[in-house]
Design brief:
Largest sheet: 5 strands, mixed
Shape: globular
Distance between the termini: 31 Å
Oligomer: single chain
Strand order of the largest sheet: 5-6-1-7-8
Length: 425
DNA sequence: ATGCTCCTGCGAA
DNA sequence: CTAACGTTCGCAGGAGCAT
């Protein structure tokens, strides 16, 4: 038995915890660079604000309807997420942290009666100790738990935020599956939903009963797993230990268009810095780095996109070495005269630092370099991020993303940020 | 015929 | 005030190449 715990309108709920005046009000949170809507409260949904809409398209609408708009504040959301996950870890034997606002938990060892009781306790505890409302779905597989959660969120009033499918008979469960359209199943996106429509497969129930071979052929093995999980046969394991990343990406749109190579270099140096920090954090080294730059596909004018992959003979996790390599790549793909809107890097071919193979060339990270990185990381950890950084990262950084909602509310939020650090527990 | 790497498509939050 | 559309990850399978 598996439960999926999902925080309601997570980013908005985080803002509400520190600003009770937002309760019962329409609130939205924007993506990086104040680009698109990524979180909405029920009140905002009721106004018809869609997920993923570019903010500039609805800015006037929000003003007219007194919608509270926030730039994303990931330091806050990350902190709230850790609190929620810690409580879940204490109340469940096994947990898979699936995303910033979601976790699967195993309910093995509980009787059906106990499960229902326990789920209610989990919900109450999280809400009481963090102020974040959650919805919980329970099923015999991950896909069914997801589906249950989806219904819990959709009908919060009737369900009180909890849907438990395991007490249901097969036929009662099928009645529910008939109400779920295939596109709403976890793992079935837009393209797969279209393919299924063509097969006259419209609901979760249709998919559950459809011919195995045909599903395998049209949706590949992943589609088959989903089908099997709908039937109650687990195919997807609970991944309780986080596996190290196979690639680490850092990319961002700029606050304004950039033309000059030196500005792009600064941005790239910053990307390498954050990615390399993550790399060292999981005790890995990378053997190649991909650099890319691009113009805005949404703005008319000459378009340019290019990327290049640079390799190291033996891997590295030393920031300055990686920056140097990234610069060499950037200089190869840079073309003058374009208005660049985004740059990014990907660390690839990642291996565990310990079992790194000796190479013929003596290009490994030296003890000295490793010690330098350790020291740098430890200083930034205790003194705050980017206390110490490479000059290549620049000091001005005028190209940084926009995240200044100029509303009066926003300018008064320094105290809120301070509250986050001194946890009220 | 088989095995490898690279790239693309898709889905998730 | 301007101009104005996000980021990060994994997996499957086909393409292309080598053996």
């Amino acid at each position: 038995m598996i439960a999926l715990v999902d925080c309601n309108s997570f980013f908005c709920s985080c803002e509400r915890v520190f600003q009770p005046k937002l309760l019962k009000k329409p609130v939205i949170v924007l993506s990086n660079n104040d680009g698109c809507v990524v979180a909405r409260t029920d009140e905002a949904k009721a106004l018809g604000i869609k997920m993923g809409v570019p903010y500039f398209q609805i800015k006037d609408f929000c003003q007219k309807n007194s919608v509270f708009v926030y730039s994303s504040n990931f330091a806050l959301y990350g902190d709230m997420s850790r609190r929620v996950m810690r409580i879940l870890s204490e109340l469940a034997p096994e947990i898979e942290i699936y995303s910033i606002d979601e976790a699967f938990i195993s309910l093995d060892g509980f009787s059906p009666k106990q499960i229902s009781e326990h789920i209610h306790r989990i919900k109450e505890t999280v809400e009481q100790e963090t102020g974040i409302p959650v919805s919980i779905g329970v099923g015999s597989t991950k896909v069914l738990a997801k589906l249950a959660n989806y219904r819990a969120k959709k009908n919060k009033l009737q369900t009180k935020g909890i849907v438990n499918l395991i007490e249901l008979s097969e036929s009662a469960l099928d009645l529910i599956l008939k109400e779920v359209s295939v596109g709403d199943i976890w793992g079935i996106g837009r393209k797969s939903a279209e393919k299924l429509q063509r097969l006259q497969v419209h609901t979760a129930y249709d998919l559950k009963l459809y011919d195995d071979k045909v599903i395998q052929k049209t949706l590949s093995i992943t589609g088959r797993y989903i089908q099997e999980e709908l039937r109650g046969n687990p195919c997807l394991d609970l991944e309780t230990i986080p596996t190290p990343k196979k690639q680490i990406i850092s990319s961002r749109s700029f606050g304004r268009g950039l033309f000059k190579l030196e500005d792009l270099k600064e941005a790239v140096a910053n990307h390498v810095t954050t990615a390399a920090e993550k790399l060292r954090h999981q005790n890995s080294i990378a053997h190649s780095i991909l650099v890319y730059i691009r113009t805005s596909p949404f703005k008319k004018g000459p378009q340019y996109y290019n990327s290049i992959t640079m390799s190291l003979h033996s891997g590295s996790s030393v920031t300055n070495k990686l920056i140097k390599l990234a610069f060499a790549g950037l200089e190869k793909i840079y073309r003058e005269g374009f208005e660049y809107k985004k740059a990014g890097i990907i660390l690839m071919d990642i291996d565990d630092k310990a079992h790194t193979q000796l190479s013929f060339f003596n290009t490994h990270d030296s003890d000295k370099e490793n010690l330098l990185m350790e020291t740098l990381d430890s200083i930034n950890h205790t003194e705050g991020e980017s206390t110490l950084k490479f000059a290549a990262c620049g000091t001005n950084q005028f190209w940084r993303m926009l995240s200044q909602m100029k509303s009066p509310q926003y300018s008064t939020r320094w105290s809120d940020l301070l509250q986050v650090n001194s946890s009220p527990e």
